[in-house]
Amino acid sequence: MTKPIELKLFAETQLDPKPHGGLITYNPSIELFARAAGPTSLQVWRSNGQVVAKVSQRGERESVQAIRWKADGNQEPNRRLEYTLHRLTDIRRSNAQSDPSILAWKDLASRGLDSDDVKSISDLPRDLTFLEVETALPKISPLPVSGGSGDDMFVFTTRASLEFLFRPFSPQDSDKVDVMIVGTNDGRIHLSIYDSFVIGNFNYTVPQSLGGPNSVQLVSHASHPDLSTHTLVFKPSGDAKPTMLYLVPMDLTFVYSSPENLSLLSSKTTTLQKLLRYLKQVTMHMIHEWQSTRELPSRFLNSINETLKEAGTYGEMGIKQALYHSVVTGHNFPEVKEWLVDQLAERGHKRWDKAVVSGLQTLRSLVHENFLPALERIGIILSRLLGIARFHESREEIGFTSAQIIKVMDIVSCLMLVGNKVLLLVMEELDLFQSFSSWLRHEIDRLASSSSPDELTEKEATMEHGKILTYIQQYMPASPLRYYLGNVASDDADTDWRQAESGSSLLDMLDRQVKKQESGQPHTGVFSQVEFLCKYVDSKTNVVFEGIAEAEKRSVRFGQPAKILLNKNIAKFDVRMSAAQTPGLTFTALTTESQESNDLPLRIVRIPHRADDLGFQPYQPGSAVTPHVLSNEEVTTMTLNMVVPTDPGFVPVQMEVKEARSERGYIPSRVCLLGSDLQTYKIFALPDDPFKEAAKSREDDVMMQ
Hints:
Largest sheet: 5 strands, antiparallel
CATH topology of the largest domain: Methylamine Dehydrogenase, Chain H
Radius of gyration: 34 Å
CATH architecture of the largest domain: 7 Propeller
Strand content: 15-25%
Structural class: alpha+beta
Shape: elongated
């Protein structure tokens, strides 16, 4: 008889508030816990109760549907959770009626080499392939908290989030593929690799030959690091207590058959996606800052223009001509004098000066520290993708061509040109405005004073009147920055979009357009608008991303399903994969609902995969198999079982088993139990060698006897 092993309590906590929907999980590597703190928020905390991170998703709709740690333990849980939550929101946005119902992470070996083997091999071509140039570039700067919009408005606002999102590629992980599988409640399967590179959605249906229902829903998943084949478990949609399950093998053949190094390609494309999202936010900030420099001055100028027009004695003269007249002659028209002294005055001038100077300085920083550095990194990634395309496109289908990458690089060159033009104009306008602002303040003080003190005359003598006149004539009524940061009319955008698709070099067309603008010609198109170029580069890169995803998606194979049909409702089940045999084995354990109750102690039973006395039988899909029923006494006698010391009122409703880890000090194997009250959470340490522990218990019994 196998004497049960009594487990030792490792940790216990009372959850307050209760995890929403019972969603709670223990980190496999370190003592961190994650739970749904509410319908739209995630919380990570340590075993001592200290909260590490809390991430909330805006919106009224319930957004936390599933939680799963990565197999490596996710050493930066707060940023990873924030980013994963964002990606799952993208999945839901693609179909407003679907919610994630199951989430699974897995690291798979792509080349058949362990990381230790890779480290011991000296391979110059491989080292050159994974040579990172981006690490020599300055780090990308965080964006201001205000000024952005959309889901990414806060993602790029801290140094910690940027360092996590733009981590350098690690060659040590080049032979592993990070896979995420999400099942939605409408029956779809969402597959992505390396956190954010989406392979695509799959709508799986059970073949009619098995008498399958019209629709099925993914409820569980199993995989093994050494196998590219996953096992998916489906149940009939809408059936809360099914009597049948379908085991479906899904083979990700691209893991081992991709012509290019999958980790390198995915790393570069996911980084490119993040940089484009970052660039979009930078563009929004730039447009917002430029508009802020024009809003208040426009109100002041429109007010005096209306006054001059109502006077009816100056013809078509506006404030531009009136101020130019004042600078040249020193004479002010009565309406202009009244506007300067009574309406604008010292307070209005300070507001004008602050709005323009602070806005232009922020805009200069955005272009210099955020916009141009992001474009430099994008250019480096595109050059790497161009090399991959030229190497493979004549022999294998990799999903994109060198012509597509060259087109994207042409657009990025246009953005670089526009960014440098904006930077030069901003610095010039800032310099000219400071001269104009000094003169304007001098005029307000001079006109408001009844006398002309000597210091005002000396101040006026030191002013640069050429810069003042240039600002009044070229920048005050309409800044040249409007050609780059202004609003884009839809008709003009459509016209130039069609012209850009003609096949000509966009950089050449932009160069001609800029020369026309600088020569003072009327409206000449929107090729120079940052907003237009960002939308255009997004559309062209999406073609590349979709092509890569489609090429990988064609390599996903679904095998013949196995139907498991029981006479009673299935209460619990678990699925595991083993690589002991090629192409691997799938083991499934199921329990049915029972109305019987007993007072036996709570036990954890370890059932071996192979045992003659447990009555394992071969199972053929569609064939009826008589279950081999074991009583409680037989289970406790024939299997290794462990007693869980708990209070009489503690009834577990959820269990997790974690392996022993030693990343940050040794942590033994653990079993985590959530009580039926959804507040009591107990963790018990499992023995390192349960068979040795059981043998020791038997020896102790013999000695006592």
